[in-house]
Amino acid sequence: MCALNIANEVQTGAANSGEPIVNDFTIMAATKNGSGSQTSNSVIVKSLFRMGIPVNGKNLFPSNIKGLPTWYSIRVSKDGYTARRPHNEIAIVFNQDTAAEDIANLPPDGVCLIPADWKWGQSRSDIIYYELPVKELMAKTEIPADLKDRIGNMVYVGAVAQLFGIPLEIIYEALLDNFNRKEKAARLNYNVVEIAYNWTAENLPKRDVYRFEKMNETQGKIMISGNEAGALGSLFGGMTVAAWYPITPSTSLIDGVLDYKHLRRDAETGKDTVAVVQAEDELAAIGMIVGAGWAGARAMTSTSGPGISLMAEFAGLAYFAEIPCVIWDITRLGPSTGLPTRTSQGDVLFAHFLGHGDTKQICLLPATVEECFEFGWRSFDIAEEYQAPVFVLSDLDLGMNNWMGEPFTYPTESIKRGKTLDKIQLEEFFAKYGEWYRYKDYDGDGIPYRTIPGTDHPRASYFTRGTGHTERATYSEKSSDWVANMHRLRLKMDVAREKLPQPFIDYNADKKVGIVSFGTNEPAIHEARNWLSAKGTQTNYLRIRSLPLASSVHEFINQHEKVYIIENNFDGQMSQIIRMEMNDTRHVESLALGDSLPMTPDWIVSKIWEGN
Amino acid sequence: MTTTPKPVGKVNAAGLERTEYKGVPSTLCPGCGHDSISNQIISMAFDMGLQPHNVVKFSGIGCSSKTPAYFLGTSHGFNSLHGRMPSIATGATLANNSLLAIGVSGDGDTGSIGFGQYKHMIRRNVPMIYIIENNGVYGLTKGQFSATSDEGQKLKYYGENALPSLDLCLEAIIGGCTFVARSFSGDAKQVQALLKAAVAHRGTAVLDIISPCVTFNNDPQSNKSYDYGKKNEVPLHEIDFIQGGYVPAREEITVDYAEGELIEVKMHDGSYVRLKKLGRDHDPRNRARAVGLLDEAQREQTFITGLLYYEEPRPILSETLNAPEIPLTALPEAQLRPTKDALDKLMQSFM
Question: A156 at the B interface (CB within 8 A)?
Fold first, then answer.
């Protein structure tokens, strides 16, 4: 249980000493869904970001439009950590339905901001209460009655700003940003913040140890959600067709495409160079992008688990008929409807093998907003290079929450269309080979040459089918034709595995303990490795960025005495993929969580400590 | 060895012979109605001088969906998934709106598994000719009832059909389709004329062609049989298609009457469809009347064929979505990727 002690030292050690704790704690705002608290929370996060303090906000929201409990955790970390922590030092208890639980979860010396109107009995004597007369303060404002319910949560913004130290002018700027620079809306909200701030200053002497202080750690950084980043990446990737069906948590990716579609508006004609269709279901959405990809568009759909289930048949067709398209899966917790507003990495096995029969799909695994942007544009290049569907497996935590990141790097390579022959190239091809067969491997890499409809050449056409075919694209039921084609497809994927985005590896000489993971466990692993290192356990780290697995994953695993595969699903799906491909995995241990929440460093440290 | 010179056949406006519009030999049952429709497509394409590289063929799964391999062998074709051809065609025509899309489906592919996609394709006005080779039976799976099987129809293994049939033309009209026709594969002349008119139409054109299944549903009692069709077909009008040159500019459609005897519909490309009244009066521009006519036909079990409904085309999907007039696939990289400056400015807004 040493590990848990480490966690406790980090978390509460300083609090007990009475010393101020600066920029290293977590605030949890507990409110009701649909009460306007999202604005309050965003404004606090944005303000802290503007103060130069590393910050991460996570929304834990219900599958509901209005009324059910929602929690928003805001972590500030002077050391730049952005992972979720299992506990919060400060609770904004603004939802009566969960108040008892929210108060009980506070650590000793924790802080509770609570409406005074409730006449809440102070159930714990080891925490600090700040009671806010929300109704009384709202009565002092100039807010129209019909807006009071939605703006009431601004009271805690004012109290937080005063108690822990956020300058009011920064709050106002963040409000302006939040309301797209509309002064009227910003002022309305600011009015409440200011009244609450002043009342707090006059009536609530500071009794806790927590403080925000300006830093210089966010200069030049951006704050953006993974879904917005993916949308921008797609727009910079030359996407011409997007088809989708609404589903949480992927909807905001397409919203991002619509929000920034103006980037792709032709100034002369006023026409959009990207067409976005809301389909009748996910079957149609993927059908549209497969049709568009076949016809030469750069086409994308965005969905989540239930949509991926519906897309299975088309994914198999696109793999087998070799049609480029991009499918974003913003993973939520399944099976079935599952927990639709909670995060998961549970679609890895399903997506990688999506399709009946022998199918192996290319998957990209972003961990950061920068990678969401990069894979946003690069996925189209990869899809066209390998003439295959490309799945980008993000998740709810990355997709829907705002993350700090470096400003995105402009695509370093021009748009790649792969082995697509236009009229002239086809002519040259015929001159060189005396033939062109759609599914023939001319280069020994398993990747054939394709043409697109409309190519003005009498020999450009071929017939696309999901049935067995020869290398000339003619119908065939011969087993020899079938097997030859499957061998070529396998070769194509084996070529891909060494050229897709390669693993990120943080490596030192000590080859005892290796950690293998992917996606949004990154911040928790980063923090956990520092904790472990501080206590004498050095670890090496490999983060998988694509499937099929690169050979460097095999090498990394073979080089270590002990390897942990850390992932946020229940069955250890990546671990299963690794075991399928490797002979000796006796030293490999699966650390699979899948508890519906973003991973914490605390969990990782405790698990690795148990194993050593 | 002497070689006999290849006889030079008749050449069309595109400089091609009729044989150049053929596909691979059909593998359907000898005498299948679908093969005669394929032949009519070949003749239509030859007559109209279509450029094969500008044509794309689509299908779902089933006997009918095999046929795109049997015509226009030098056009790109896509035999896709059961019931999902409309979505494939939606994406492809959105990617490249200059293509002439011909889709072939069946009554199972359209009326059952693909019914949702069929309705939504129509609603979006995807520019394509959507042919239903309707035989009221599942052939490839050996003779089950389909959604268009008539109530009371008898099949060898499955007994009597207890459910009412679905009228795919009625569904098309209700769904907002601007070109809806029914025909009979045994009536080559009418199929031919309707195909040509459909080519000249802009938007979704539905052709529901009763095409007997000689193996599973050709009992003279069945109203999807040859005998039945031959004896009972009631053509509304004699249809002539008069081809004009392709006129890119939009023109008003004018319909002139000669006492209800002759209706001339001017198509967008300058062609005309001339409808000579044969029996009952029918103005294909009248939506309520078209719906009423099909309703009566269903009740009275009469087999009415012809151009059932036509209206001035509404915007096709790429127009609805504000896509450029030139194909999206023809855009240069400069129009596909915003500048570095645009990205840098955007990044500032996230700081």
Answer: no
Distance (Å) from the C-alpha of residue A484 to the closest C-alpha of chain B?
A: 21
Strands A21-22 and A210-211: parallel
**Helices A479-499 and A369-386: angle between axes, nearest 10 degrees:** 150
Residues A557 and A456 in one domain: no
Domain assignment of residue A31, yes or no: yes
In this structure, are residues B195 and B212 in contact, taking their beta carbons and an 8 Å threshold? no
Cβ partners under 8 Å of residue B189, min gap 6: none
CATH code at A393? 3.40.50.970
pLDDT of residue B281: 84
Given a contact cutoff of 8 angstroms between Cβ atoms, the answer to whether A519 and A345 are in contact is: yes
Tens digit of each residue's pLDDT (9 = 90 or more) over A159-191: 999 999 999 999 999 999 999 999 999 999 999
pLDDT at B316 over 50: yes
The CA–CA distances, whole Å, from A236 to A48, A209, A385 equal: 30, 46, 18
Interface contact A250, partner B, CB < 8 A = no
Question: What's the CATH code, domain B18-239+278-333?
Answer: 3.40.50.970
Q: Give B88-141 pLDDT, tens digit per residue.
A: 999 999 999 999 999 999 999 999 999 999 999 999 999 999 999 999 999 889
Q: Which of residues 377-406 of A touch B (CB under 8 A)?
A: 377
pTM for this one? Answer: 0.95
Residue A217 counted as domain residue: no
CB A362 within 8 A of CB A336: no
Asked if residue A166 and residue A62 are part of one domain, the reply reads yes
Q: A277 to each of A240, A315, A401, how far by Cα in Å?
A: 11, 19, 25
Query: Do A90 and A209 contact (CB within 8 A), yes or no?
Result: no
Same domain? A511 vs A487? no
Angstrom CA distances, B245 to A285, A353, B101, B146, B271, stand at 37, 51, 19, 41, 7
Domain that holds residue A294: 224-403
Q: Where is the domain boundary, A369, A403, A437?
A: A403
Pick from B84, B320, B325 the residue to mutate for testing the A interface (most A CBs within 10 Å).
B84
Give the pair of three-digit tokens for residue A302. 């965005």
The CATH number that applies at residue A561 is 3.40.50.920
In a domain, A143, yes or no: yes
Separation CA A133–CA A115 (nearest Å): 6
Q: Specify the number of domains making up chain A.
A: 4
* B69: nearest CA partner in chain A: A463
When scoring A282, A374, A410, A450 by the number of chain B Cβ atoms within 10 A, the one with the most, hence best to mutate, is: A410
Distance CA A117, CA B110 (A): 62
Strand spans (E) along A479-549: 504-506, 513-518, 539-544, 546-547
